[in-house]
Amino acid sequence: MLDEKSRLTGIIVICLSFALLMTICLPGAVQAAEGPVYQVDLEGTITAGQNNYLQRQVEKALASDARLLVLVINTPGGLVDATLEINRLFMNAPIPIAVIVAPSGAIAGSAGAFILISADLAAMAPGTTVGAAQPVTISPEGTESADDKTVTFYANHLRSIAEEKGRPPEVAEKFVTENLTLSAGEALDIGLIDYIVADVPELLAAVDDLVVEKQNERYILQTKDVPVYSDEMNLRERLQNWIGDPQISFLVLILGLLGIYFGLGAPGTIVPEVTGAILLILGIYGIGLFDTSTTGIILLLLGVGLIIAEIFTAGFGIMGIGGAASIIAGAILMPVEPLMAREWYTTFMLTVVGTVIGLLIILIFVIQRVIHSRKQWKESSSYFTPPKKGIAVTDLNPEGMIKSQGELWKARSENKFLIKTGMEVEVVRAETLMLYVRPMVDQENHPGDLNE
Questions:
Q1: CA–CA distance, 386 with 433 (Å, rounded to integer)
Q2: What's the rounded Cα separation, in Å, for the pair 170 and 159?
Q3: Which pTM does this prediction carry?
Q4: Which fold has domain 389-439?
Q5: 72-101, pLDDT tens digit by residue?
Q6: How far apart are CA 158 and CA 166, in angstroms?
Q7: Closest to 98 measured CA to CA, from 210, 231, 225, 226
C-alpha cells in the first residue's frame, strides 16, 4: 500500500515537473490584440525619411494595441543605414509585422529583399520579383560592385536574418553574392515567402487565426473584418525622404558648390553664397555624411547668423530671407527625442514659423522703404537738396567749409573773393557736393553768428 502511494506521488511530481519545464521552454501565449491593423506603404528608394516614417507608424500601432502591421513595398533598393535600421526595427518590435510586395509588377530589389526576409510574415503579389541585393559603390565612373569584404559581410548578415526567421539561408546569401532574383512562385516554392496574395485584404483573410511566434511570445492574429488604418508622411519625413534620394542629394550638393563658387567669383552678389551654403549642407546630409540632428543644428545656426548679418549689413533682405529658410529647414530636421512630449514639438514648430513670418514682414517693409528711397532719388534732379544759406566756419579762400542746419558742407566763393569765418553766405548753385556761395547783402564786413 505504501509502495503504491509512493509510486503515485512520484508520478505526480514528475508530471508537475514536466508541465513546469514545458511552461518555461515553450513560448508564452498572449491574448489576441483588439486594435486595428496598420498599413504602411513604402515606394521608391529606401531613405532615412522612410525609415523614420516607418518607426513612427510602429509606435502608433503599439500605442493603439494593433493586431498586425502590414508593410506594402515596391522599391528598387535604398540606403544601407536606413535598410539596416528597418531590419532592427522588425526584428525587435513587439508586434507581428507582415511585408507584401505589391501590387502586381512591383519589385523588392536590393534593400527590399532585406526588408522582406526580416518580416514575420512575407507575401508577394503575382507578377512581382525579389532579389538582386548585391551592394554597390558610387565612383566617378558610375556604380560598381562593392569589394569582396563588404559583399561577404552583407551576405552573412542576410543569411543570419533568414535563419532567425526560418527562411532558406542559402537563398538569402545568393541574393547578395550572386544577385539572385526570384519570382513570386519561385519564392513560395522554396519557402522564402509564406503567401502569394493580390493585396492587403487578401493577406488579412489568409492569416486570420494564425499564431505567430516572436521573441518567445505567441501572437494570435484575428484579422478578419478588422479596420485598416494608414497614415501619410509628415513634413519632416517628406523632406528627409526627398533629400535622402541619392540622385536628388547629389544634384543639391553640386548646386550648393556651384552657388558658393559663383558667389566667391562675384563678391557682393549675396544670393549665390546664401543659397549655395544652404544647399551644400542639405546635400551633405542627403549623401549621409551628416546625421539628422547635426544637420538641423547647423541649419539653425546658419539661419541665425544670416539674420544677424542682415541686421548689421546692407544685404537688401537676401540674407534675411535665406536665414529664415535655413531656420525653417533646421527646425523641420530637428530630431524627436523620446523624453520630450510631441505637443512640445508642435508648439516649437509654430513658434519657429511665427518668428520667421515676423522677420519676413520686417524685411519686406525694409526692402520696400529702400526701393521707395531709391525711386525718389532717380526721379529727382539730384541726389541731395542743397541748403539756401549758411555760416562760414572756415575762411573761404576761395574754398572752405560752411555750416547750415547743423550740417557741414564744402563751399567755394563764387567770385573767388575771401569770405571770412563767421560771415553769413547764400548758396548760388551746387555742383556735385560743392556749394558755390557769396556773402549775404551787407554781410561783407559783419561776421555772422556761428550758432545760427
A1: 9
A2: 7
A3: 0.64
A4: OB fold (Dihydrolipoamide Acetyltransferase, E2P) (2.40.50)
A5: 999 999 888 889 999 999 999 999 999 999
A6: 12
A7: 210
